[in-house]
Design a protein that fits this description.
InterPro entries: DUF2798 (IPR021529). The chain is mainly alpha-helical. It contains two helices and no strands. The chain is extended.
Length: about 80
């Protein structure tokens, strides 16, 4: 194992963690900007909207990822 890297077994947590952080960042920003426009109050509200979105999305992603992998395996030739 290269120095400074986590063992491969952590992939099942790290990948959904990064994916949920990035996706909730983008989606919450789009929703806040669509609802309020590019204003100071909207920008101030965005971090808490992102945190709430992520707190819901990460556990849901951990739950549904095995199902998504199985469905993908059915659809995509491996």
């Amino acid at each position: 194992m290269p120095k400074g890297k986590l063992p491969k077994r952590y992939n099942t947590i790290i990948m959904p963690l990064i994916l949920s952080l990035l996706m909730t960042c983008v989606v919450s920003a789009i929703n806040i900007l669509r609802a309020q426009g590019l204003t100071a109050p909207a920008l101030a509200m965005w971090p808490s909207a992102w945190a709430l979105s992520w707190a819901i999305a990460f556990p849901v992603l951990l739950l549904v990822l095995p199902v998504v992998k199985r469905l993908t395996a059915i659809i995509v030739e491996m």
